[in-house]
Design a protein that fits this description.
Blueprint: H1 6-69, H2 80-93, H3 97-110, H4 121-137, E1 148-158, E2 161-170, E3 185-192, H5 197-211, E4 217-220, H6 224-232, E5 237-239, H7 241-253, H8 257-273, H9 295-308, H10 314-319, H11 327-350, H12 354-368, H13 373-390, H14 405-417, H15 432-436, H16 450-456, H17 459-469, H18 474-482
Parallel strand pairs: 1-4, 4-5
Antiparallel strand pairs: 1-2, 2-3
Length: 488
């Protein structure tokens, strides 16, 4: 019988076919991987091109809006948007005039604005001064119909140049926070070699003509010329709470031997340790004038140093060992400033009223128990001050302002921005101050129509104001003398 071989041949044929199919499957899988990789590459390129196209379209749109949609300003080369951007950067950005120019140059390149010309530093300065003059000249008197108060102070800038600044604020306090920049208006900015009571009273009369009525009350520190001017003007003064309490503190402690020895030790420490490795622990710098206005910083430093002295390295502990000798006066003054800060917080945030005076008197009463002699003497003087101010109020519904801190803040901002050369003194750049009153703390930017401001103010207006209310710049005077060829 012959063996059957059909099934064997069929199996071999199928194995061969299966091997070919496997090989083809491997090739197809390889092709799929290549296609997927290629698809991924093309997808990435598509997304990149799409995003680039969006940037280009957005740049074209922005450039078109920048060039065509913004209104031009009469007699000015640049449009409203660019002027507004420059002024806002300067006032709210905290940079200098040249810093504004550098920021614009960067934004022009980074955002592809396509600006062919960037404003110079002098142009930005002129815009700031013009806008400030416009705000200063166009005070909205409607909010003063129910009465207004005046915050007044004198600031010595350089040599014989003394600037008198007067702010206006609604008489009745309606908020539970301290005065902010957007709560006040600059009513007067004047510079004279000196200010006597007659000249200050004349400024107050001019403000009365400008607003239409006399102020309900005037807030000022205890300067004799300001007090005499207010009396001559036939108005009454509300004492600035911070200055008045600092004056009382000075009256009690200034000539006290323990206090004098402590202050001398602090000054001596600053000089002996200034160039040594221990200088990082030196006491804070004190004011030359009105030292008691920032004395609390020195007392805080001393109080903290007393607490941590046992943890200091040997060199630091030995250098500041003097602090233990003055422990009693430090603790006493620290308690005094705790009480003072509590009282000032109530008066500055809630205003002067029968209710707040009662609160402050109660705080004084809480501190007077177990108080040393000098501290109890200070508390008695503060209570007398509160009773005196309370008698000036009309009725129980009267709530008045009692702090000039906002004016001190504005002076500080002006000093930081003015020319570093002290010979420049007060220039028309002082008109930067009214711009600060239009900064809204709730949102960035200046609340002012800059187009209207720049169109409504001429350079001749600024020159006229400069000639009328400022005195000759000492730098200009110096240049005239040195460049006078007739003297050579």
């Amino acid at each position: 019988m012959k063996p059957w071989t059909g099934s064997i041949t069929n199996v071999a044929r199928k194995k061969s076919s299966l091997s070919m199919l496997r090989k083809e499957n491997r090739q197809l899988r390889s092709c799929c991987k290549e296609i997927k990789a290629s698809r991924s590459i093309w997808k990435s390129k598509y997304l990149l091109l799409k995003s680039s196209l969006a940037v280009v379209q957005n740049t074209i749109t922005n450039h078109s809006e920048w060039e065509t949609c913004q209104q031009s300003i009469k007699r000015h080369k640049y449009n409203e948007q660019l002027v507004s951007l420059c002024v806002n950067i300067y006032v709210t950005g905290g940079c200098g005039l040249r810093g504004v120019v550098n920021i614009l140059k960067y934004l022009n390149v980074a955002l592809s604005w396509g600006l062919e010309d960037i404003p110079c530093k002098s142009s930005v300065e002129n815009w700031v001064i013009k806008a400030g003059y416009y705000i200063y000249d166009k005070v909205d008197t409607c909010k003063y119909e129910k009465g207004y108060a005046v915050v007044m102070d004198e600031c010595m800038v350089q040599g014989q140049e003394r600037m008198l600044a007067v702010l206006g604020v609604p008489a009745n306090k309606q908020t539970d926070y301290a005065l902010g920049l957007d709560d006040v208006d600059v009513l007067s900015l004047r510079v004279r070699p000196s200010w006597d009571s007659c000249s200050i009273a004349k400024v107050l009369e001019e403000i009365t003509q400008k607003i239409g009525t006399k102020p309900t009350y005037i807030i000022s520190d205890g300067s004799s010329n300001l007090k005499s001017a207010i009396t001559q003007y036939e108005s009454f003064r509300i004492c600035d709470a911070g200055h008045e309490i600092a004056r009382l503190l000075e009256h009690v402690y200034k000539k006290e031997p323990g206090f004098e020895n402590f202050m001398k030790a602090c000054v001596q420490c600053k000089y002996t340790e200034v160039m040594k490795p221990t200088c990082y622990l030196n006491p804070p710098k004190q004011r030359a004038i009105a030292r008691f206005m920032n004395l609390s910083h020195t007392i805080k430093w001393a109080e903290k140093l007393l607490k941590i002295q046992h943890t200091l390295p040997e060199i630091e502990r030995r250098a500041f060992s003097f602090i233990k000798k003055h422990k009693a006066i430090i603790h006493e003054l620290n308690s005094a400033f705790e009480m003072i800060n509590d009282i000032l917080h109530v008066l500055k945030h809630q205003g002067l009223s029968f209710k707040t005076v009662e609160k402050c008197l109660q705080k004084c009463q809480n501190y007077i128990f177990n108080a040393p002699y000098l501290l109890s003497k200070l508390i008695v003087k503060i209570k007398e001050y509160l009773h005196t101010e309370n008698e000036k109020l009309f009725n129980k519904d009267t709530v008045w302002h009692t702090s000039s801190d906002i004016l001190e803040s504005m002076f500080g901002m002006f000093k930081n921005r003015k020319a570093s050369n002290p010979l420049h003194g007060v220039t028309p750049f002082a008109l930067y101050l009214p711009l600060l009153t239009k900064t809204n703390t709730g949102k960035p930017g200046i609340n002012c129509n800059l187009k209207e401001a720049l169109e409504g103010v001429l350079i001749s207006d600024l020159k006229s104001w400069n000639k009328k209310y400022l005195i000759e710049n000492q730098v200009v005077k110096r240049c005239k003398i040195f460049n006078n060829k007739k003297l050579i």
